[in-house]
Structure to design on (299 residues):
């Protein structure tokens, strides 16, 4: 698949067409999901376990990918449904505002609103709420973990970062071999980050630029060796570990960006999903990690 996949998925010119194509997913989305809206007007797509379970349930706030500039929650219906049914949890996929029309912090604030809304629901155990996402969604999840720590309202127990888009500086690295990348290259990366950041100071908005990661939720980070985000993902994992945050890293040899979405039935993709599922089970069901205190550690 890597031999025929394009290296660049999005540019300023192709963005309207790509948004239109992805938007069609709303027409064929899973009928098992339900829709809800937060008080602030953020749309959330809810996936419940097939067999009802008594009592408040653990939950995962899922943030879709798309380079901060495109995507809809429906694109991850299969992933969300699989996690909800296999773990017996509620998975809430948030429809956040996109750049460049809505640069930082609009999308992040939508995710924060969805997270606090989810934690307040009577059918959700607020002590067992995880956050996660893929690509730009993983980057937003990492930023959300930091924002949750700083505001101290909700304390997520886990962050699931699937080949996360964490560091705008990767676009400027001249040592990277551009012929290796599929679906997302340095030019796409530069466009996505420029659209998302706008005039914002990157030191504030970019997770990999933050110097203090302590007090954030334990993490799982998964990425392929042929993914543009490999180096920034492993570097972020090291920074988390150095800050005393438990972090598990899953490296998939030869895997390109989004490989599991392109070929979901391939054994390597199934194994990648199983690793995510097991990490969430440990955090939400088995409670293998201590529950973070909902307060600002800097206070």
């Amino acid at each position: 698949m890597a031999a025929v996949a394009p290296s660049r998925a999005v540019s300023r010119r192709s963005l309207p067409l790509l948004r239109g194509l992805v938007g069609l997913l709303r027409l064929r989305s899973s009928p098992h999901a339900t829709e809800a809206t937060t008080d602030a007007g953020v749309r959330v797509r809810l996936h419940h376990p097939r067999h009802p379970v008594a009592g408040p349930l653990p939950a995962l706030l899922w943030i879709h990918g798309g380079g901060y500039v495109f995507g809809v929650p429906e694109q991850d219906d299969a992933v969300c449904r699989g996690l909800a049914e296999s773990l017996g949890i509620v998975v809430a996929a948030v429809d956040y505002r996109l750049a460049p029309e809505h640069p930082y912090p609009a999308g992040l604030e939508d995710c924060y609103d969805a997270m606090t809304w989810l934690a307040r629901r009577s059918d959700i155990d607020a002590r067992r709420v995880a956050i996660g996402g893929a690509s730009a969604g993983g980057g937003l999840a990492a930023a959300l973990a930091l924002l949750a720590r700083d505001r101290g309202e909700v304390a997520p127990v886990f962050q699931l970062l699937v080949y996360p888009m964490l560091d705008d500086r990767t676009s400027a690295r001249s040592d990277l071999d551009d012929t290796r990348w599929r679906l997302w290259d340095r030019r796409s990366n530069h466009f996505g980050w420029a659209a998302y950041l706008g005039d914002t100071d990157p030191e504030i908005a970019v997770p990999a630029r933050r110097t203090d990661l302590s007090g954030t939720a334990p993490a799982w980070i998964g990425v392929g060796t042929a993914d543009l985000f490999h180096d920034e993902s492993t570097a972020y994992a090291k920074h988390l570990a150095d800050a005393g945050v438990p972090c598990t890293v899953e490296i998939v040899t030869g895997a390109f960006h989004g490989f599991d979405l392109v070929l979901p039935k391939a054994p390597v993709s199934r194994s990648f999903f199983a690793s995510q599922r097991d990490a969430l089970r440990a955090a939400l069901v088995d409670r293998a990690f201590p529950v973070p205190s909902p307060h600002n550690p800097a206070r």
